[in-house]
Amino acid sequence: MIVIFIYYCRINYVKDVYNRKGSDRISKWKRKLSVGLAIGTVAMMLNFSPVMIQASSIMDKVTTTETTEDHAEDTSYSLLRGNHLNSGTVKVQRLSSNEIAIYGLTQCHHVCDEVYLYLYLERKYPEGYGTYKYWKFTDNNVTSLSRGLNVAVPSGTYYRVRGYHAAKDGSKESTSTLTSGILIN
């Protein structure tokens, strides 16, 4: 940095000598060079460094949490065979460039006092997935609970469905499901 400053001073000294002699032919490019060196010196003194910025998109790469298909589904069974809850299933499917269909099912072994089905539509943001919309359904004295919905969504990103499935007949048993993300474009 000191070397650059010395060159800057030397160029200004040479410029003054040429100006005294009346020669103007070299002074223009040396003036531009001295301004450039001065800016470079100040930038180095303030520790500025050029930063390459590259625009990235959340759609650049299909990860393990996404699929290239137009639909995805997941089914989960109780880790231990429960007395009440058998399984839970969620599905998501692209219908058009701005509409998706989601479906959820909670299946029990027998008629239960309460059956729960919570559906969470998640949208992919640059920092990851987040809940976009959700629905909570319950029913009494049934063996299963299912719901299907068509949802209008903005295009240009991935969507997935997370499900919470539970059955209560004295004690409560639950499981969760999660589809892969599908691109709505």
Describe the model.
The chain has helices at 2-21, 27-45, and strands at residues 66-67, 71-77, 85-96, 99-125, 128-152, 157-169, 171-178, 181-184. The protein is an alpha+beta fold and 185 residues long. Strands 1, 2, 3, 4, 5, 6, 7 and 8 form an 8-stranded mixed beta sheet that branches. The model is unreliable at 50-56 (pLDDT under 50).
What's a concise summary of this model?
21% of the residues lie in helices and 53% in strands.
Q: Helix fraction?
A: 10-25%
Are there runs of 5+ residues with pLDDT below 50, and where? 50-56
| Pattern of helices and strands | HHEEEEEEEE
H/I helix tally: 2
Query: How is the biggest beta sheet arranged?
Result: 8 strands, mixed
Number of separate strands: 8
The rough form would be described as elongated
Question: What is the structural class?
Answer: alpha+beta
Distance between the termini: 52 Å
Radius of gyration: 33 Å
Strand content: over 45%
Q: What is the mean predicted local confidence, pLDDT?
A: 82
Considering the chains and any ligands shown, give keywords for the structure.
8-stranded mixed beta sheet, elongated, 185 residues, single chain, alpha+beta
List the helices and strands and how they pair.
Blueprint: H1 2-21, H2 27-45, E1 66-67, E2 71-77, E3 85-96, E4 99-125, E5 128-152, E6 157-169, E7 171-178, E8 181-184
